[in-house]
Amino acid sequence: MKLGIVGLPNVGKSTLFNAITKAGAESANYPFCTIEPNMGVVDVPDYRLPELQKIYGSEKILPAQVMFFDIAGLVKGASKGEGLGNQFLSHIREVDAILHVVRCFDDGNVVHVDGDIDPLRDIQTINMELILADLEILERRKNRVERQLKGDKKLKPLYDLILRLIDHLEGERLAKSYPLTKEEEAYYRDIHLLTSKPVIYVANVSPEGDSEAFEQIKAFAETEQSDALAISVQIEQEIAQLDPEERVIFLEEMGIKESGLDRLIQASYKLLNLISFITAGPKEIHAWTIIKGTKAQRAAGKIHSDMERGFIRAETIAYEDLVKAGNIAKAREQGLLRLEGKEYVVKDGDILNFRFNV
């Protein structure tokens, strides 16, 4: 899973990236500090893996992972090359979902690129640049398809979709709010528009909360079927500097159930419709990320293409059933271990052992 952190300059993107990845990306109080996108890989928190390590006596744990990209601050006119322009729009194109950081805190020591704090204005600024970039993509695509139409009339549905999308975006609406028909879906996926990507709005609030600003962002996010989280990047920075035991104590003292990182990953999984299945044995416990609804044979391919090609069946047990039984031998005695075929839909927390023959 690839998540791109975007927003205006000086809203806390790089500071958030540093806190959740501990990668030490440069963060400074001036625009365009981040030119090339920093990338950090973070383990997905999963309480099940240490428990399974105890049951199997595994040598190591390999959690599922998320890649975070810290993409430079966009400004008004980025789609036309202002600031650092299209270079960064192309970076956004590579990610699965966008974490749009919006500044809610007021701090005279950290300048705002537009002079004052206005979360909804800032969101609209970024969204308009993404819309303008998409319109440029569509215009180029329209001209190309227009030429191809003379020799291939089958492209007419694609051409008509492009025209409708241009009209939609010119109304200052995101591509993901366009009412797609079933016939248009394949064409739409092939266009790869920036404003079709799922978004989580991350309200960067002060430690006190800035609840009014967050409620504005949350209400806006609901209008476009996006998610919104309030995170104090300042607090996340402090959490990142603690060892695991100190972190638990700190969160308890602050009255916080989960860190911002945990909530971000959970929200991202939900947004992208992802789940994890697990393979387990004496050597390692390994979590694998798949799309919800994936069948067993396709899930096997997540590990290796040979497993998918030569799939026979999957030995399956739910995490809760194995923990209740205590070990795999007792689970087998109790009939909790099942053999599933290629049409079995994998569930979150399933522990799978694939049998295959190539």
Describe this structure in words.
- Helices cover 42% and strands 20% of the residues.
- By secondary structure, the chain is an alpha/beta fold.
- The chain is built from 14 helices and twelve strands.
- α1 (13-21) packs parallel to α8 and α4 (119-149) runs antiparallel to α5.
- The radius of gyration is 23 Å and the shape is flat.
- The longest helix has 31 residues, at 119-149.
- A six-stranded mixed β-sheet has the order 2-4-1-5-6-7, with helices on both faces. The protein has a three-stranded mixed β-sheet with strand order 3-9-8, with helices on both faces.
Brief descriptors of the model:
single chain, 20% strand, flat, 358 residues, 6-stranded mixed sheet, 42% helix, alpha/beta
N-to-C span: 29 Å
Shape by Cα distribution: flat
Spatial extent as radius of gyration: 23 Å
- By DSSP (H or I, 4+ residues per run), the number of helices equals 14
Helix/strand/pairing category: alpha/beta
Low-confidence segments? 24-35, 82-86
The SSE string, one letter per element, is EHEHEEHEHHHEHEHHHEEHHEHHEE
Strand composition percent: 15-25%
Strand line-up of the largest beta sheet: 2-4-1-5-6-7
- Main β-sheet description: 6 strands, mixed
Helix content: 40-55%
Q: Would you count the extended β strands for me? A: 12
Summed up:
It contains 14 helices and 12 strands.
List the helices and strands and how they pair.
Blueprint lengths: L1 E5 L6 H9 L16 E6 L4 H9 L3 E3 L2 E6 L15 H7 L4 E7 L15 H31 L6 H15 L14 H7 L7 E6 L6 H13 L3 E5 L1 H8 L3 H11 L5 H13 L1 E7 L3 E8 L4 H8 L1 H5 L1 E8 H7 L2 H6 L4 E3 L9 E7 L2
Parallel strand pairs: 1-4, 1-5, 3-9, 5-6, 6-7
Antiparallel strand pairs: 2-4, 8-9, 10-11, 10-12
Helix pairs in contact: 1-8, 4-5
